[in-house]
Every structure is written in structure tokens, then in C-alpha cells.
Amino acid sequence: MNEPRRLHPLAAFIQFLKTVRELILPLALFFIFGGEGEGKFVWFKYAVLVITLLGTLMGGLLSWYRYTYRIEQGELRIEYGIFVRKRRYIPRERIQTIHVSAGIIQRLFGLVKLQIETARGGNEAEAVLTAITKAEADRIKSALLADDLISYAQMEDAFLRYEATMKELVIAASTSGSIGVVLSAGGAFFGQFDELIPYELFLQKFQQFTHLNMIIISLIVLFAIFLVWFISIFIMVAKYGHFTVVKNGDDLTISRGLLEKRQFNIPIARIQAIRIAQNPLRQLFGYAAVYVESAGGLAEKESNYSTVLFPLVKVSKVNELLSMFVPHYSVPASFERLPSRALRRYIWRSVLPAVVLLLPISYFFQPWGYLLLLLVVPFAFLGYMRFKDAGVYMIDEHSLSLRYRVFTKMIVLLRKRRIQTLESSQSIFQRKQRLATVHLFIQSGLLHSKHFKVVDIDEAHMDAIQKWYRKR
Amino acid sequence: MREEPKHRISERALTVWRISGAILSAISWMLFFVFVAVTLIFDWPYWLIMIGFIVVVVDTYAKIFLFPKLRWKRWRYEVHEHEIDIQRGLFIIRRTIIPMVRVQHVDTEQGPLLRKYRLATVSVSTAATTHEIPALDVQEAEKLRDRISILARVVDEDE
């Protein structure tokens, strides 16, 4: 057990690839700006390239050769470094999570990557074993994890488990609105090659060919949009494929990913809030996505410390699932809506920016430009929807939930003891109408905060919320 | 709405705010003179200078007289046994409740300007947010800090 071991030799190759990836930019710069090649210079350029690659490969091999680990006296002891020897000892009591994943390269060889995290946090894991066999990973896990954790791991099957079906994932992906992201990313990507690829020429040839046939062009555009949509669906499904949530003891373990499997733990005690999001498309079909806001765990490497808990569920099933996985959180049947005098303010707030933006445009394109002002109607409708969906409800002494809409309808479930501060704000106009805005702050990650608000609730309701919050 | 918190911050805060307002408007005036010079050099219309002048005068008035006065009038706080209650704001009034169980630490701090007027700022931090009660008399600030830190020692029995 305690003789030093090396990683699988594949680790050397992975290290090599990693360094090459970092070197691509400087090398490319060197090639582009290294002067036009004349005679000797071309030779020199390629020599630099070959030497750099060989050096990197040697470096990868050496660092693999010098990297050893062993488990001794309840510690994971790692020694590494090519010229300067470094030692890192991690006592098993300090280890918080052991995270096993497999990238594409590891997968090809049936290997896994093992990351060890301690409470110290930070962006990188304390120890990363880039390529080891699965059996070896299990051996390390059982040697390092505290006994109670092992028993959980072994009894996993007896615990609660949720798995997203492929159908749900595809629906989730096709209604996610991520097509916009793919479109703009694609636009930016092709924009980069503007100077290399003669788009203009293509377009001209194309126009000659089709004789400016608008129908064909619009068909092609339509096809392109569909293609992008499919790509975005594929990306989402690859990211969230095999999505499972397992509840073992006090932790939720979420794993996902079709090509690269990712897994992380969220201690239930560190959950700060639950968010239920319904974009208009999903609302139409009665679906929602459920997110967890947490103050720690591996989820913090996700965006903004919030993580998908259930990618897509029927709204009617949300409470059932929540009660199984995160006790104490449930969506109330109704919300206390806003007083009707808030409606005018809601409509103004969404119409005004649109008018400010549209008025100058329509002025410049007279007289047809004024038709643009018709766009005010959908904005007014959005304002009405925002008004209709906004609300706060104190479920009981310990829980409160908010509902609001920006574009996506959002329900936030909060526990009193997770609300760090309560704030009310009132502008001069709000005061005249006896309305106020409620703000609730929660912890997000170790050092950050997140806040949720509902605008224009009744003053009397605000008083009731403050009273609820003061009561211990 | 519930009655306002009882205590006001020190009246000397007004002086401090006016001084820092004066420093800020001095910068505005400097920008204004640069603008005048540019206008003269490039022969832009003179009414631009008039508009600039009015803007800077209003800005100075607001920063030195109007805003400090309003802000001081609004600023109120009260430390109860179980929570800290803060009210502040210029045109939008904010009312904040910080439960003692959520308080993680309390500090007092003092910049050079505050020190000159024997003032200090008390700042209260929770796991998510930090709240400042600016410009209290030094002794009062220290008393308040000690009091909050004792009151904040309650355990969260809700667990």
C-alpha cells in the first residue's frame, strides 16, 4: 500500500497536450510575425517548432517519471517536480471530496482522473492524479475516505436517485434558448476569418447562380438556422447527458456529461435557496428547470454557484421531487399578488426603455418608421405579465417564497435562516402609492452574495414580511 | 410602515460630507475649465459654456449642500437585542434588517477626514453582505461595536 506509485504513462501524453495547448498562441504569433521566410529563416522557424515540441514532450515524460504518490500513515503523499523536488502531504482528515471523472482521452484508454479537494477551496484541486486505472482510483478512495463515507458510497443503491430521461433532456435542450449563444458564438468565429475567407466573393457567385432568387436564399437561411438549432441541442445534450442526482446521507451528488463525465457534491446543509425557472417556451408546455444555490461544495466551479438540480420537470412534479431530495423546500400553491395600483408602474417600466430606443429610429425612417412604435404593444404585454407573476408568500414561520419575471418566470424558495439580510426600498413615487420593493440577500459561494427582489409590493405586506423576518 | 429607527448619526458627519463634496466639485470645476479652454480653442459656440456652467453650479450645490443635508436627515439606525435596523437613502429610502444571529463580525474604521473630526464608521458583516453606519462619534462607535459583538454571540438554535 505504501510503496510509491506512478501514474499511467498516458499522464505524460496528457501533460504534453496541455503544454502544447498553452504554447499554441505564442507559437502562432511567432509564425505570423516572425518575418516572411527567406532561405535560412524558414529553416530556422521549423527548427524552433520541432525543438519546442520535442522539449515539451521530454518535459511531459520527465514530469510523469518524477511524479509519484503513496498512501502512508493515513496521508496521501505526493512527490513531484523535475528540477525542484516538491512534496505535498494531505492528511485524510482534511480531505473533503474525492472527485473521479474521465475526459475523452482517459476514456479511450479506460482510465480515470482523480481530484482531491480539501476545505481550503480555491480554484484548483489540491491533488490531481491525471490518469490512473479505475481499480486504482477505488483503492485510493477507500484508503482515504473516512469510514462513514465509504459505507455511503457502497450503499448508494439504497439511496434516492433521480435520472433525467433522454426525452426530457432533448426537450430541455430544444427549449433552452441556447441557440442564441451558438449563433453569436458562430458569428464571432466566422467574423474572425473575414479577411482570410472571401465571403463577398462567395455571395456574388451565389447571387449569380441563384439569380437573386429570394425564395432559395430564405430557404437556405432557414436551413442554416435549423442546423444551428440542432447543434445547440446536441451541445446541451452532450453537456447534460446521463444526468443523475443521487442523495446519499447529507449530500447530493450530481453527475452529468455524455462525452466528459463530471460529478460534484453539494452538502444539503449548504444549500441557500432553490430556484425554479420557466422560460416562456417551457411555461407553454408546463415544464420547469430547478436550480440549487449553494454556499460551497464542488458546485462553486459552476457558474455563479448555482447548479442545475433537475434539468426539466413537469411543473406538477416539482414538489414531489423537492420533498424527496431537499426537504423543507416546496412551492406554495398560491402567492400573494401585487395590489392593482402597481400595474401601471409595471407597464411603464417595460414600455419606457422600448419607447426611448424606438422613437429616434422611427423618426429617421419616416413615415413607415412609426410602425415600429407598434412594438410597444408586446412590451406592454410583458409588463402586464411581470405584474401578474410577481408576488411573495410566507409559507410558514421558516419559509418564504418569491415569484417574479424578467423574461423567464422565476420562483425562489428561501428559508428564514438562510436569508442574511432583509431590505426594503422605497422611491419617492413608490411612497406616494404606498408601494415598496423587497430585497432578500443570501450567501453564494464562500465570499459572495446574491439577491432577489420583488418590486412594488403593498406597504402593508412589506410590514408583514419584516415582522416575519424579525420573529425568531 | 413601521416607525423609524431611533438614533441619528453624528451631526459632524454633515461637515465631513460637505468637505468631501467640496473636493469632488473642485474636480468638476477643473473639468469645466478644461472644457472652456477646448471650446475657445476650437471656436465652438459659446452657449455650450453657459450650459456647462449651469451644470457645474447645480452639481456643486447638490454635492455640498443638498445631498449631505438629505442624506443626514434620512440616516437612522437602532440596535435591538435581536437585530440591527438601518435606514438610509437620498431619493430611494432603504430599510435594512440584520438579525444578530447572522452577524459574523463588526469593525470600526476611520479615514483621515473622519479622524480629524473624531468620527468612526462601524461596519457589520454577515456571510453575504456588509453594512456601514458611517460617521459616529468615536466613543459611541466603539461602544456600539462592543455591544453588537456581544449581542451577536447568540447561537442559532434553529439548526
Automatic annotation (TrEMBL), chain A:
<feature type="domain" description="YdbS-like PH">
    <location>
        <begin position="244"/>
        <end position="322"/>
    </location>
</feature>
<feature type="transmembrane region" description="Helical">
    <location>
        <begin position="169"/>
        <end position="191"/>
    </location>
</feature>
<feature type="transmembrane region" description="Helical">
    <location>
        <begin position="211"/>
        <end position="237"/>
    </location>
</feature>
<dbReference type="Pfam" id="PF03703">
    <property type="entry name" value="bPH_2"/>
</dbReference>
<feature type="domain" description="YdbS-like PH">
    <location>
        <begin position="64"/>
        <end position="142"/>
    </location>
</feature>
<feature type="domain" description="YdbS-like PH">
    <location>
        <begin position="391"/>
        <end position="469"/>
    </location>
</feature>
<feature type="transmembrane region" description="Helical">
    <location>
        <begin position="346"/>
        <end position="364"/>
    </location>
</feature>
<dbReference type="InterPro" id="IPR005182">
    <property type="entry name" value="YdbS-like_PH"/>
</dbReference>
<keyword id="KW-1133">Transmembrane helix</keyword>
<feature type="transmembrane region" description="Helical">
    <location>
        <begin position="370"/>
        <end position="387"/>
    </location>
</feature>
<protein>
    <submittedName>
        <fullName>Putative membrane protein</fullName>
    </submittedName>
</protein>
<dbReference type="InterPro" id="IPR014529">
    <property type="entry name" value="UCP026631"/>
</dbReference>
<keyword id="KW-0812">Transmembrane</keyword>
<feature type="transmembrane region" description="Helical">
    <location>
        <begin position="46"/>
        <end position="67"/>
    </location>
</feature>
<feature type="transmembrane region" description="Helical">
    <location>
        <begin position="12"/>
        <end position="34"/>
    </location>
</feature>
<keyword id="KW-0472">Membrane</keyword>
Automatic annotation (TrEMBL), chain B:
<feature type="domain" description="YdbS-like PH">
    <location>
        <begin position="72"/>
        <end position="148"/>
    </location>
</feature>
<dbReference type="Pfam" id="PF03703">
    <property type="entry name" value="bPH_2"/>
</dbReference>
<keyword id="KW-1133">Transmembrane helix</keyword>
<dbReference type="InterPro" id="IPR005182">
    <property type="entry name" value="YdbS-like_PH"/>
</dbReference>
<protein>
    <recommendedName>
        <fullName>YdbS-like PH domain-containing protein</fullName>
    </recommendedName>
</protein>
<keyword id="KW-0472">Membrane</keyword>
<feature type="transmembrane region" description="Helical">
    <location>
        <begin position="47"/>
        <end position="66"/>
    </location>
</feature>
<keyword id="KW-0812">Transmembrane</keyword>
<feature type="transmembrane region" description="Helical">
    <location>
        <begin position="21"/>
        <end position="41"/>
    </location>
</feature>
